[in-house]
Design goal:
By secondary structure, the protein is an alpha+beta fold. Helix content is 22%, strand content 29%. It is globular.
């Protein structure tokens, strides 16, 4: 994996905008935008392949987006996955190899407001929700789904100290039925102001 820093972004930028612009260079594992107290915003993009990250840096550095000349460079230091989002987290297994972080986010939104998602090449992922109720609703609705031929497993990501206390009390068994859905092309997207990258001469 390789991480790319994108600086001097316009304030109207969103994760989907960056994903649309940078996914053409290779598979993105995550996109994270930061909105500091003092603008401009900046972002970190994580690519599965370091060569794709290098292509993105060469092609997108100094591109002008909505009047802002962005700065794109390889992120300094080694990439270390961090726990991001909220405390209401789940782990997911059995994901299709082609599933991106955005696909996973769209899938989990059937259960509630998803704050952050991550995926890796081994069919595993993680996500965090805005509230505990939404997290548990997603587990009830989406666990054991068959997605594009793969059985999805969703479990609450319980901290170690909490898992010890929970293990002392008996658990109720829940029998879930197998359900099947397929990802379809997104339609009726919310129209937002489009960002059109252009190079200045």
């Amino acid at each position: 994996m390789a991480r790319v820093y994108v600086g001097n972004l316009p304030e109207i930028v969103r994760e989907r905008d960056l994903s649309d612009m940078f996914e053409r260079f290779g598979r993105l594992l995550s996109v994270q935008i930061k909105f500091p107290t003092r603008p401009p915003p900046f972002a970190f993009l994580t690519y599965e392949d370091e060569r794709d990250a290098s292509d993105a840096v060469r092609s997108m550095n100094n591109v002008v987006i909505s009047g802002s000349r962005i700065r794109v460079e390889m992120s300094r230091g080694t990439y270390e996955p961090r726990r991001r989002g909220t405390q209401y987290r789940v782990t997911i297994s059995g994901l299709p190899d082609t599933m991106s972080w955005q696909d996973l986010k769209d899938f989990l939104r059937k259960g509630g407001d998803v704050i952050h998602t991550d995926v890796d090449r081994r069919g595993h992922g993680s996500a965090s929700f805005a509230t505990s109720d939404e997290m548990h609703r997603a587990i009830r609705k989406l666990n054991d789904f068959e997605l594009n031929g793969d059985r999805i497993r969703i479990r609450e990501d319980v901290p170690r100290n909490r898992s010890r206390s929970l293990s002392r009390s008996p658990r109720r068994r829940h029998h879930s039925r197998s359900r099947s859905i397929s990802l379809s092309p997104r339609r009726n997207r919310i129209h937002r102001r489009r960002l059109s990258p252009s190079r200045s001469r």
